[in-house]
Amino acid sequence: MPATFQILPDLNLVYVRYTGMMRVDDSLKAFGAYAQHPDARPGQRHLIDLSRITDMERDFVQIMQLQAHKGAELAMRESETLMVYFANTPLSLRAAALARNGWSASQGVIAIVQETEAAALAALGLAGASFEALFEDTMRGTS
Hints:
By secondary structure, the chain is an alpha/beta fold. 42% of the residues lie in helices and 28% in strands. It has five helices and five strands. Helix 1 links the parallel strand 2 (13-22) and strand 3 (45-56). The radius of gyration is 14 Å and the shape is globular.
């Protein structure tokens, strides 16, 4: 599936990765699965990795409807959600900007875009230079 997520409860973090073609339907399925996951919690920080997308759907009405749906779900949780988009290519930067601009403060979402893994992790208050190192450290801590 082009949109996957992993919840790291000890870090209060949801890692979302898009690969290939970024589609609204895939986003809806992934977000729906996340919302139903037993480890999903209000206020979890989200790290959205867009570095592996090769194209994106351009149905902007459908994209805004997706953002509205996700915003309504997150707003019901009554806590702010930090969304950090990692984008390091012209295409992923466009996708991140579109996603970031789809959020409003009234939805309880703070959305920012970072162009390096280290900057994305720092924005989340996490140490490390790469996502791989973060996952390795997390796995070491749970074994």
